[in-house]
Design goal:
The protein is mainly alpha-helical. The protein has a domain of 37 residues. The protein is 54% helix and 3% strand.
Length: 186
């Protein structure tokens, strides 16, 4: 990382109460960067306190959200029962209307004066695979374009790293080193 970038990040990310170099060393002007173990530990303690505060705020937020979710579930349950009851009653009414319609092609939907539309919809067809091996065998022989091959990359990676397996067309590449700050429990 270039010195300019490091200075910029330090200045932008520093908390408002971070000391400036001129407050510590007198002559140096610019963003604070610790120069010894004590100063580095002071910065680490600030991060520890901030992390604990974040954890407390998250706990408070979770409690508020859980309370709101409980309230919503309780209030919504009444209304969900009303909607389910109304849907059931209106379905019976509509099916009776359709059954009583002696035209050659009865309407399968009605729009009520309230603006609500009720309708009977056709069931959807769905494919049920009873024997996957039989299906795959047929597809490979008759319609191979219907079969999609997808390598299991996570398992290949595990084999490459664990067994030392060489796989053509695949290599492991390590990204750049990063930095991580671990604060107790976070």
């Amino acid at each position: 990382m270039s010195a300019d970038l490091a200075d910029h990040l330090t200045a932008v990310l520093a908390p408002e109460d971070a000391p400036q170099d001129d407050e510590i060393a007198g002559d140096n002007v610019g963003p604070f960067v610790p120069t010894d173990l004590g100063a580095a530990d002071w910065v680490a303690r600030k991060a520890t306190r901030a992390t604990a505060t974040i954890r407390d705020l998250q706990t408070q937020r979770d409690a508020i959200v859980n309370q709101a979710d409980d309230w919503l579930a309780h209030e919504r349950a009444r209304h969900d029962r009303t909607v389910a009851w109304a849907a059931g009653v209106l379905e019976v009414w509509l099916r009776n209307e359709i059954a009583g319609d002696d035209s050659s092609k009865p309407r399968k939907s009605r729009t009520l004066p309230s603006g609500v539309t009720v309708k009977v919809t056709a069931g959807r067809e769905s494919l049920v695979v009873d024997d996957e091996a039989l299906l795959i065998g047929w597809a490979l022989n008759e319609e191979p374009h219907l079969v999609k091959y997808s390598p299991k990359l996570a398992e290949i990676r595990a084999a490459l790293t664990g067994d030392g397996l060489a796989v053509p067309g695949v290599s492991l590449v390590r990204g750049p080193d990063g930095f991580k700050l671990t604060v107790g429990g976070a």
